[in-house]
Write a structure and sequence with these properties.
Number of helices: 7
Distance between the termini: 34 Å
Strand content: 15-25%
Radius of gyration: 16 Å
Oligomer: single chain
Strand order of the largest sheet: 1-7-6-2-5-3-4
Largest sheet: 7 strands, mixed
Structural class: alpha/beta
CATH topology: Glycerol-3-phosphate (1)-acyltransferase
CATH class: Alpha Beta
Order of helices and strands: HEEHEHHEHEHEEH
CATH superfamily: Glycerol-3-phosphate (1)-acyltransferase
Number of strands: 7
Helix content: 25-40%
CATH architecture: 3-Layer(aba) Sandwich
Length: 193
């Protein structure tokens, strides 16, 4: 899995650089070991932008909609790279367990809290999956801002924020998770240059 991720990274990076130059601020905030990497999401290219912003040293497993995993060949390659398929709209216990196990093993997990691509003018409430994972594992959340307006042959200013911890949440219902999820999106948007 990690080997194929590295292979894909090395293979795709030169082609990606033709279309975008990535400028990264805040790399010093990237923690060693397990962490939840949480970024805003507006384009199919965001996972690649996130991976290239963090660099080859920081292997991470991405959560992605299960529909992508069902595309012939492409889905198989995503699985080889360690992507975790999520059945959106349902409580996907299998995906949650896989993400928890991954974090507990010391590996980073990348998640887009909005749950789907969102244009700059659109408002989307953050899903609570990232908060659930952070609460159950105690790993830091790393907020990341990726520019929503992407133009080919331009520089993308990606900003990595300071990691932070949330308390272990017990009870309180989904409202408590929703409050923390909204706070996470505020932290992400606050990084916008």
């Amino acid at each position: 899995m990690k080997g194929f991720y590295r292979f894909g990274y090395i293979l795709l990076y030169p082609f990606f650089r033709i279309f975008y130059k990535i400028s990264v601020k805040g790399r010093e905030y990237i923690p060693e070991g397990a962490a939840l990497i949480c970024a805003n999401h507006s384009a199919y290219s965001d996972p690649l932008i996130l991976a290239f912003a963090f660099g080859l040293k920081h292997f991470m497993r991405f959560l992605a909609k299960i529909e992508l995993m069902r595309i012939p060949v492409f889905g198989y390659l995503l699985k080889l790279a360690g992507v975790i398929g999520v059945n959106r709209g349902k409580s996907d216990v299998g995906a949650i367990k896989t993400a928890l196990k991954t974090l507990k093993s010391g590996v980073k997990v990348a998640i887009f809290p909005e749950g789907t691509r969102v244009a700059e003018s659109d408002a989307a409430a953050a899903k609570t999956g990232a908060i659930l994972l952070a609460s159950k594992t105690g790993v830091p959340i790393v907020p990341v801002y990726i520019p929503r307006n992407k133009k080919f042959f331009s520089t993308l200013d990606v900003v990595i924020g300071e990691p932070y911890l949330i308390e272990r949440l017990k009870g309180g219902g989904s409202e408590v998770y929703t409050v923390y999820a909204s706070e996470l999106m505020e932290k992400i948007e606050a990084l916008k240059p």
